[in-house]
Structure formats: C-alpha cells, structure tokens
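Data deposition worksheet. Section B asks for the primary sequence of the deposited chain exactly as it was used as input, without tags or linkers unless they were present during the calculation. Section C holds the resulting structure in token form. Section D is free text for depositor observations; keep each observation to a single sentence. Incomplete worksheets are returned to the depositor.
Section A, Depositor: J.P.
Section B:
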Amino acid sequence: MPDSASLKALFDPQSFRAEGHKLIDLLADSLQHSLAGEGNARTSQQPNQSAAHWRDHLQAALAGNAAPTAASELFSQWIGQSIKTHHPHTMGHQVGVTAPIAALADLLGSLLDTGNGVFEVGDPATAVERAVVMDLARRLNMGENAGGYLTSGGTLGNLTALLAARQAAAPFDAWKHGNDNTRPFGVLVSEQAHYCIDRAARVMGWGERGVIKVRTDAQSRMQTGAMQEALDSTRAEGIQVIAAVGNAGTTATGAFDPLDEIAEFCRVNGLWFHADAAHGGAVVFSPKYRHLLKGIEYADSIVIDFHKLMMSPSLTTAVLFKREATSFGAFAQEAKYLWRTKDPISVGGDALPWFDAAHRTMECTRPMAALRVFALLANHGDKAIANYVESVFAAAQEFAKIIQTTPGFELLTPPTANIICYRIAPPELTDAESDALNTAVRTQLISEGNFYIVETKIADRTWLRSAIMNPFTSGEHFRSLLETLLRIREEINI
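Section C:
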C-alpha cells in the first residue's frame, strides 16, 4: 500500500516554509560574502574525487546506512563546493551573474512547473514569454511580422534557427524528405563562430563540409570580403549554401562581426541571414553600445541569451524570427493531443499558434524561463540591464589598460565587449615555450582557487582569457590577478 503519510510529509507546506527560509538565509550569506570578495572564487576539486564523494553519499542514504541529510545541510554543502559567480575574482566563462529577483522568479517557476509547452497548461508563463519576446524584437527593430520564443540555451536556439533556415531556403520540403545527399547543404560561418554552429550543422546531417569557415581579421571579425570567395568555391563543389551566420559577441574575444555587411551579402546572394547574438545581444539595451548591432535588424533569425549579460539564470535564450511564420517550418508536424489548430503551420490571421510553443521548439515541456526576465524588467526596469552591460564593458577596458602598462604581459586586442585575451610574454621564450608557460601558470592559479580564469587558442597560440561578468570586479582585482600570475610564473621557473 502507498505510504500516504510519507507523501503528505514530502509536500508539507510548513516544512517547505521552514526549509525555504533556511535556504534563503544560506544564499543571502553566500551572496554577501561573494560580493565582498571573501574566500576563494573556486574550490579546488578533482572530477573523480567529487563524483566518488557524492556517489558514496547517495548510496549510503539509499541503503539506510546513514541518517537522512537535512535539506539545509545538503544546500550548504552544494553552495560551499560551487564556483562563486558573484565573486569579483571569478573571470572565467561567460556565466551570468544572476540578479536575486530573477533567482526568486526561478524558484517560483520550479515549484509551479506548469510545463509551458502549450497555453492550456502554461498560462500565464506563455503569455509572459510573449511579452518578453515581442519587447526584445521591438528593441531590435525587426518589424511588425517578427516574433519568437524562449528555449534552453544558445545551442538549441541556433540549431532551431538553422532548421527553420533549411526549411525556408531548400527547394523542397526538407522536414518531410530530409537532406538532398546529391547536393548537400552548407552554411557560411566565421572561423571564430561558437562550436554549437558547427555542431548544429552536423546534427542536421551536413557533416564537416557543410560548415564553411570564413577568415577573420586581427580583431576576430569576419572578413566579409572573403565571403564571396568562400561561397563561390563551395558552390563549385556542389554544396547548397543556404545561410550565413554573423557573430554579435564571439566566445573567444567578444568581437562583433560587421552585421550590416553580412546582411547585404546575404540579400545579394539569396541567403538566410542568422545572427548569433547569444553573448552580445544584450547591448540593445545600452544607448552607448547599441551601435555594435548595426545591421542585425535585417537578420532572418537571431539568438540572444538572457543568461549571459542580462543577469538571468541559465538557461534562458530567445530565438527571434523576422518573419515569425518561418519559425514553424523548423518542426512541421502535428501532435493532435496537444495543439488546437488542425494545421499547426497555418499562418493565416489568428491561426498562427504562437501560444503553443511546442509547435516550433525542440522542447515540449519547458521551464517557465520568461518569469526570470519579466521579474527583472518589471521590478528594476531596462536601465538595470543597460547599467550592467556598460559596467562590465568599462571594466574590461580598464583591465586592458592595466595589462598594457604591466611589464611582462601581452594583450591580444583591445576589447570590444567584456572579454579580454592576454598572456604572459617573456621575450626570451619561443612560441611553444610561451604557450606551455601560460598553460602551466593558469593550472597552478586554478588549483589555488583564489582566481578563476580560462585559456583559449587563437591562431594556434595559447591565450589567457577573462570574461568580466561581475559588475563589481574592478582595477584592484585586475592588478591582484596579474601580480598573482607573475608570482606563479616565478615559482614554477619556466
């Protein structure tokens, strides 16, 4: 017989209230300490050791060999072992610094958990999502026929946009009949494009030859002058190039491609123009940096992450289409138990079923992600995002100046956004020795845990890379980082 008493205890509102208050206190304390720069940015852990610890913990609990762990104890351990994204020394990956109001909205969405794939069970989240998406499309000047939805991350967003591009550009029903193996599809991308574009092409069956990489300049921007050569040579090989992708904030350096030039190239050559603005699209909120998106209004599709520069939890990604009707081509199929319309890709008048997002997303059941964004905007206004973007961009400029005036370091290029690439550059070392040195220094830095940065390869050279995601990271933190790197360099004596 089912144990109804245990189930009632599991869902007990008073117990939830008590544990919830404890959790908020733990998180608030962690936030306070992190913002103050107290403690390490990252604990030093080895993957197998961490996995073994939690495996043993779980198995002991399931076997009844240990007393149940209090929720607050578990939460405290998880907080303690997690990287501190709000710490000013955390300058590694493009992981957003979540605003508390967005985190609270996420908690609400997790408990309500309405599914959000169809309006019937997803209201008000689906309607809130519509408001957020349409506001973003308006800011991007995409036109009155624009629209879109939210999905879980830029990888899914870029894949879905390219699926829609294939359906719109192919001379046949690609969703129904699949790829034309006699004339395979391809997409033009920058050699600095995020790896998920390459992955999307391969997932769609286009293979390695379907990803046509275009050269970049010294600032990591796609050279539009090289696009025609790439297009002509690829077409000569029998590949149907259907789209070109422009970057608005590359992962490696934060560079913005000349989107207006790419848009014109696509118009002349009859290509779908997709803008991967996962990282940099947030500048649309900033009067100071909005110019970096010049030309994005001509894009047929755009991907923007709210979880990068808009203080929302992961994953919160907008996929926008200049002609919203084209978004329904990505997944042109029926599911009669879910959707109201007889024809799910009907686009006439009110038949366009924006409210049943599962028509055109990879996901059916989806998180109530729009609540995170709506809560932030409704409570703090759009100037909060502008202020955040301008703060981290300004911090990156300050860091670049400090690097340039600190002996022993080399700056790759002045930052356009909030990402900086630099390295220790002893003149007496060869390129290979210098690369090995920077890798070794970073490895030691990470093991110490006081700072967190990453490394990348650009033009076959190793660079240290910092993404300034914390608006409170300042010059004193940058100077301390460089001092620490030089100290480690001396200690390892390479």
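Section D:
Residues 233 and 289 are 36 Å apart (CA to CA).
Residues 333-350 have pLDDT under 50 and may be disordered.
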